[in-house]
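Thanks for the sequence, V.! I ran Glutamine--fructose-6-phosphate aminotransferase [isomerizing] right away. Repeating your input here for the record:
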Amino acid sequence: SKGNHRHYMLKEIYEQPVVVAQTLRSYLRRMEDQVSLPIPDFDLGSIRRVTIVACGTSYYAGMVAKYWFEQFARVPVDIDVASEFRYRAPVMEEGGLMIVISQSGETADTLAALRHARAEGQKIAAVVNVPTSTMAREADLLLPTNAGPEIGVASTKAFTCQLAVLAAFAANLARAKGRLDAKAEKELVRHLSEAPAALNGALAYDESIEGMAHLIAGARDVLYLGRGPDYPLALEGALKLKEISYIHAEGYAAGEMKHGPIALIDDKVPVIVLAPSGPLFEKTVSNMQEVQARGGKVVLISDYDGVQAAGEGCMATITMPKVHPLIAPMVYAVPVQLLAYHVAVAKGTDVDQPRNLAKSVTVE
Ligand code: M6R
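Predicted structure:
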C-alpha cells in the first residue's frame, strides 16, 4: 500500500534510507571494515575487462559505476544501452565480465544482450531487484538489490540500491586486483555506511523542493548539468522529469554546454546544476556561470559550502548534506527525484502511471 503517501513514487523515494541500508548489509562487513559479495569465492581476480549493459535509469546507474570501476579497480569498462549493444558487433575478449543492471530482471533488450554475451564466452553478473527474474536465474553471479517491490513506473529506490551494490562491487574488484589496501577499504566501507543517514538528510529538503516546483512547472524545456559521476545524475534527473511531468528535459555533461546546447539558454529554460563539493566543483561552477552570463536561470544543487560559494545569483538553491564524492550520486538522486515528483503533481499528471510507459519493457 501507499501508506500515508499520495503516490507510490513518493513512498518509494522515502524508503531509500531503509532499503539502501538493507541492500548494503549484504555487501559490507561492518565489523571487519570489509566489503564482501553474496558469493564470496567468485573469481574476480581474473576479470580483465567489464562491459555494462542496461536500459533507462538502470543504464545511468551503470554510467556512474564506470567511474568507480576505473578509479578503484583500474579495470577498463565499456558501457552501452542494451538495444545498441546487441546489434553492433561488440568485441568481447577472454576474461570479460558483463554486468547487466535491471530492476525487473526481465527487460527484453537487456536479456538479449546477456544471452549474446554468454554465447561469446563472457561471465555474467546481474544486479537485479527481482531475485526470481530471468536475468537472476541466467547470471553466474547474482548481485541482488534489496529495494523491495517497486510499483511506481518511474524508478527511484531501485536506482539508489543499484548504486550501493555497484560501489561495493567495484571495491570488491579493486581488492581482488590488489588495488585496495586495508586502510582504503576501511575508508570506503565507512563512506558507504554513511549513505542511509545522508539520504535521510536529503529527504529533509522535500518541503522546500515542493515550494520551488512552480519555478519549473511552467517551463517548456529544462536542462540538467553535472560532471564526472554526477553527469549520469543529470541524465537521470532529465529522464525523471520527462517521464512524469512531460516537460522536455535534457541532461548534459557540464563541460559540453559550450559546444552547442548553450545556444538554447535564455530566461525561459531553467538549468538544474548538480555540483557537490569535491574535486570537480570549481569546473562545474564555471560552466554554471557561463549559463548565468547568458541570462540562464539556475537551480543549484550543492551542499552548504557549495551553496555559500556559488549560490548567489541563482534562481534557487537546494542544500544537500555534505558527503564524500563516492556517495554523492546516491544522495543527489533524491532532490532530482523529488523535483520531478513535485513538478508532476503541480501539473496534475498521473505520477505512478505516466502515459505511454510500462513498468517492465518485455519486448525488444
Ligand atoms: O527493469 P529495468 O531496470 O531493466 O528497466 C529499465 C528501464 O525500462 C527503466 O529504468 C525505465 O527507464 C524507468 N521508467 C525509469 O524511470
